[in-house]
Protein 1
Amino acid sequence: MARPPLLRKLAGEPGRVGRVALVACSKVKLTPAQIERRPHQFDIFSPVGRHAVPAQELYQGQLFKLSRAWLESKRPGKEWAILSAKHGLVLPEQMIEPYDLALGDLTWEQQKRWGQRVRSQLAALWGIDDVIYLILAGESYRHHLHLPMSEDVFGHWARERKARGTRGRMGIGVLKQMLKRGASYP
């Protein structure tokens, strides 16, 4: 049985990953009180705190949840990661604690450093030049990444709407509708 691409990469085995989706985190997260009410195993020897949960469960914003559901239905079993203002790149199963920081809270220079940090993390995991990154995030997240091979999923949908003559802005409400209805992407 072949190993998943991420495990091949971590093991130093050859094999191109292909496409990796990057999803923006959300401001709305589980609170420490909500985490304490959840049934979970806490490992006293773990280096993470008692309020840590898998990143894919921490983020509770509607756009994040819809993006995750869209990925899981359109690209099941494929690689994806979360763009976090605090942590940079976060894998879905990575244990993290709630935090209160948005990319917009950072200065322009801090955002540039954030982009460099994420690029370094991407390079270490999947590489930069051999992977197409599907980005499900707003402009503030995309701007500082400077990925040579990336596809702006939301931008693609906006161009499709414009080509069909659909009027109105491609706001967050429209993005949510497209994710809910399972819009296609090449």
Protein 2
Amino acid sequence: MRLRAAVLAAALAALPAVADEVPPQHFVGQGVAIDLTFTAQEGRLSAGSDAALALHFADAATAAPLAAASPAAWFSLRRPGEAADDAKCARKVGAFVAGNPIERPDADLTGFAVLTLNRDPSLTVIDPQGGYGGSRVLALLPLDSPGGDWVIGQDPQRAYVTEPAAGKIAAIDLQSWQRHATAEIAAPGTLLLQPGRGLWSTDAAGVTLLDADSLAILARIPTGSGTHRLAATADGKILFVTNGDAGTVSVIDAVQRTRLRDLPIGLAPVAIATSALAGFAYVASEAGITIIDPARTAPVGQIATSPGLAALAIAPGGRWGFATDPGRDRVVIFDTVTGRALLELPVAKGPAEIAFTQTEAYIRRRGSEAVTLVPLATLDGGGKPAGIAEFPAGERPFPATAAVSAASMTSAPGEASMLLASPGERAVQFYHEGMAAPAGSFEDAGRQPVAVAVLDRSLHQGAPGTYGAPVRLPTAGRYDVAVLLDAPRLVHCFTLDVAPAEGAVPGGALAIEPLDLPRTVPAGDRLVLRFHAVDTGTRQIRKDLSGVTAQAVLAPGTWHRRYALVPGPDDTWLLDFTPPEPGIYLLSFEAPAAGLSLGSGGNFSFEATGPAVGGDHHS
């Protein structure tokens, strides 16, 4: 920790006060030309600010873009006086790829993080690179009441979570691990995020449009009564809202923020989805599946089914639709192009929820832990699809609840695999296609996950050969931006100077100091520890901070968790922490926007005594 503080102090001393412009950087190796550019969202590349990284790969001889590249990138703070060195860079990349717990990157633009919405009022962020059964929990974030639905935004990286019992919607910054904004909405229901337009939320009166940054209310649009579900056309111009009690679907002009009309559907519409391929919306209700043309804002067809549909979803590509009928142990598969049912597939013990990868449909059941797999490629034959399989997702059936509409399954980015919330095992199951059972599981810090989502942190291709990602710049200093290309094998480290945040004081002048840290506590007892953020030069309490996190480590490092500190009374910061087992715990703190890195503002320890009882550990 002291070494890292010295690295930070030396790096800050060598930096300019502001890094407004970073010229593009160019490198050629192994016949590949790489160009690196950064774009600051607010014109300044400083600690804690958001920027966009872009890497362009091209053939060095022909300048043809490499559109099939699979690059990875990391940020790593340099030691004092350390120059750029590709040999050292290669060693760093090797450690990052191997998941070395000692040498971690300061910012990681690879892979994904797993998010769980838990039965208690909390949200967990898990790094799956920590390994099965011993996952690295990046953050455990409190909610004001148990969550009901959520959506994940990629740019900026935020989780929007409904808190129905509290009458709120929370926007949580997934890089600072802090609540960014809160909206007070009576009985918030389901959410739909439209980048560039805002966040839609259903409520008791209809639907509300919120600003995606501040969560300020932009529009309120009344609709029919009852439980609501949302769907939008591929271009985002039309929003559909189901009204369960009224038996209607409200058609909303999402651009003008006005209700166009209410369409009678029949009894209890329960689900809705759209197909970009067919250009229609599909509504499941007691009357069957109604097809709506958004251009005419009118029903244009009906797919007859028995009453009792519970869920409806459209597979990737938009051709095939699936609707579950748990009461009759059937799944209706229909063709969106012809508007006709293809077949009714028997699935025992209450098929309920549907999810997809690019190649398979996953059907979760109410009365069994078994999950049914339906290969999508075999549906073209018109008969019963070949290759139907199943696997156990844990040891107990998934206990679905009407209070949670968020999905309990989601596909892993870039992989033929599925993540499944498993509250009975207090974990997330990881299933890779082709296997007879999950490959492993990720612990949820002793919580019971009821929904799962992913935050994709990897580079994505925009223009041919150009791969980019948003990044929250780490603590001020000089960094290696390490880039790895698989084919041809190429490793190179670019240089980036991150200036101190505006108003930040360099060299560890900010410290997080405890007000009532005990020397010993019983293992398993909940602690709410109070801290002040203090300027060590003036001894004044800093009141202008945000994004303060704590890392708790059980010596000698076999267990660690990261927690968001929340503001408390009298300018304090509060850490809600339960030591899971006996031992010596070390606390360190980070506030990147204020120039505070782990260990540079002080480390504290206490001892937990007694038998292991679970706490924030796996139990």
Protein 3
Amino acid sequence: MEGTAGTRRHATDVNTMAATRPTPREIYEGCCRGEEGAWDLVLQLCVQRGKRAGLGDAARDIAQNIVLDLINGKIDRVENPDGFNAFLRQMTNFAIINHLRNPREKNDPEPVTDETAPDPAPEDWVSSRRMQQSVWDILADLGPRCRRVLQLSTTGYKHREIADLLGVPINTVSTWVRRCIQRFQEHPGFATVKQEWH
């Protein structure tokens, strides 16, 4: 009997949630309480956004991954429950961009590597590790915004995409990228990186 009542309650929660047009705060609070209706609504919102982006069947997979990320702790990153929809939109946009940039399915074969290529000489490896450590040291000194902007910029994101992800105007992103690169080049550790590079 209890299972039947629970099933009816779940169906009512989903229908009530969808019919009443809950606020972002109500959806967030429902998710925090573990209400399946709230999670189903989050899934639906993410699927709709993915389909509007032209992802077709992949939209549901992306939406499910977003819900799993939220369940596994990302929901704790929401600073403003009233902005939960904006947080979801940002997560969905990021997932869509990643999907479009990396369309290869998990079942695709891995690229063939040349196993006859010689291993790098130990001194090259040490030099490379030293340069890599120098870059990480510089990035650590730049601060979180610079690190994030440079990470996105150097991994192929266009300024428009970065602006959309961070919720700022494109001109702001252009200014941030320029200033961060300048700060990177002015950092005392840049001389080491430049020397190792050549």
